[in-house]
Design goal:
alpha/beta; 434 Repressor (Amino-terminal Domain); Rossmann fold; six-stranded parallel beta sheet; DNA-binding
Amino acid sequence: MQSIAEKYFCIFTKVMKQKKRVTIYDIAQKLNVTASTVSRALSNNGYVNEATRLLVQKTAAELNYKRNTLASNLRKGESKTIGVVVPRINQNFFANVIAGIEDSTYQKGYNLVICQSDEQYKKEVKCVNTLINQHVDCIVISVSVDSLNYDHLRNVIDQGIQLIQFDRVADELQTLKVINDNEQASFEAVCHMLEQGYKKIALLEGPQNLNIFRQRKDGYLRALKKFGVPVNSMYVVENAWTKELGAAATKKLLNLPDAPDAIFASTSDFSALGVLEVANGMQIKVPSQLGICGYSNEAFTEITSPSITTIDQFSMDMGRAVANLYFDELNNTDTGGIPKTIDIKPVLIIRGSTSRKSEALSAKS
Amino acid sequence: MQSIAEKYFCIFTKVMKQKKRVTIYDIAQKLNVTASTVSRALSNNGYVNEATRLLVQKTAAELNYKRNTLASNLRKGESKTIGVVVPRINQNFFANVIAGIEDSTYQKGYNLVICQSDEQYKKEVKCVNTLINQHVDCIVISVSVDSLNYDHLRNVIDQGIQLIQFDRVADELQTLKVINDNEQASFEAVCHMLEQGYKKIALLEGPQNLNIFRQRKDGYLRALKKFGVPVNSMYVVENAWTKELGAAATKKLLNLPDAPDAIFASTSDFSALGVLEVANGMQIKVPSQLGICGYSNEAFTEITSPSITTIDQFSMDMGRAVANLYFDELNNTDTGGIPKTIDIKPVLIIRGSTSRKSEALSAKS
DNA sequence: TATTTTTCTGCAATCGATTGCATATTGAAA
DNA sequence: TTTCAATATGCAATCGATTGCAGAAAAATA
């Protein structure tokens, strides 16, 4: 339908868009020096006459020259790139960790390549292989629920790439790690609830193949043991990590003949929110009749009624710790022994949903 | 402090870690063919004998060969990489857009490189230049508040790289764009509030150099005009986009002699949350005495009391639209005219915070 | 059987930046 | 003045994968 003139105009515009990029050879030719001199002048490396250097840099700016880091990295044998693999990019915890990593790596002129596994092993393997092919200098990973085999991570090490695991780690792999002390945080949360007089505390747990959920359960069990409270297996519910799954699990728990008087949603604050909604629907008073504790300090935990006691994982700090661990290892010539593990201490944030004693006191006054 | 033996062991371990990666030359040598044949066999491109091809692929797997995409991309002149620049990675809207982009690009074997500008022009320029240096095939960007000059984006085009703007766009640049119809969404939200009987609606707006905030204000003004409501400049407050800034602006507004009876926090749901908290603190009933509308449908908007009316921007769909626009342009040989703009229609989500009439009805029954 | 076409492999160049080293020149030291 | 050291530049090779093309061999066609 287009006229001939229009058709030629389209082709002409397209050709213009694909113009050749300026290379160091263009600069060299213009200044009658070699590419070698141009390279030295641009990188200020090796000997180059000051006047030549300034002229090269001026010309490069005039020609709008941009270095090709594909070529540069290939020749230099390093890419200044860190690959990050997380289960889901838009999950707040991981988004914050990534932000923390990016914060620190940007300062060092490093780039991030970010992949998401969508909690699928197959996709995680593909992410890892893509990053290996890209010759990234380091791979940072939090494994997916679906991942039961870690050959792909062993392969990272075999290819000579630094591997750092964070949060969800494969215990069997001896690599650099940045983790939360989930066990201690869980222990403190459950102790707090026991101290508030809750006697029958249920645990909403996650898949036990992931280290983080195992540890949270360990903390729960340790707290019960410390207070001499027997473990009731009816009170432990698996795979209750979304709001909906948390709500369903809560209905079952609260319909038991001997219903719990507190629920520790160790998987997420969303799960805790599901608990809260069911309790409200059943006219169960929080915190006086039922205590609720979540995990992760999502933004909404302070605005619910009552606000939800939870655990803050300092996700951005974790990200920064990951990046700094990598740079420390770069500079460290003393290494060779056991790979380092950085332990971020989570903090229990006590709010209204577990403050039974405080609530009882203020009810009296 | 280490013994001599330990020191040597450390050095030896470090050398082992930096083992040379397998290249196609290693495979070629092992099979007594040339690298050319190996390359053809691995990529299944050009002619190669079937038996040779299988043998090469088997050997590559045995040697755990991984292609070097630096070299590959350099030679081929394409990187299959899309660079994304957003103001902040851990802001929910942008995290969701990135997730949507990644979702679609992963299917096509593309990689994402993600940068954040931290709402700073200087950092945005650096992000863009890094991506140009990396020879990404496309740059996707949502500009920062601080960005008043777009030479760096014009440079992207000059370097022959495809540029796609989303959400916050520079109107003066004729590029591919994916935007929200902010004006219409805003118009509908304000009409809805006017229909609910609110007569004095205040606007919490963002910096007017960004297109999105200009459009949201335009929609507000159009709705007032449609209902014949005069514009009161005391009701328009700038830079109220965090919870805290929204709260401060609300205090001022509600202390006016002729205070507004509704507040449209057009910048964010966090701002609306600030409004809600101030209203609660001043014993102002929502929605009967004050209507509140936010923007972005953050997760918490449905759990506050009352839940907050807001606008859903379909952020993940936006991300997918960005990616699909890029791939459509790759396949499109007819282009050359005006670059395409994809328009995502936001949806008004009506909840308790503006439901004055419904609330009045249920109070009667 | 002779001719033409298809298949296959290897050679050499390419991509763009970096760098070791040889050579020439200049400046400093003996 | 002679010798030694520093500065500067250019040449050529390197990095690892890809690909155009020449030449040979095999297969298909006339």
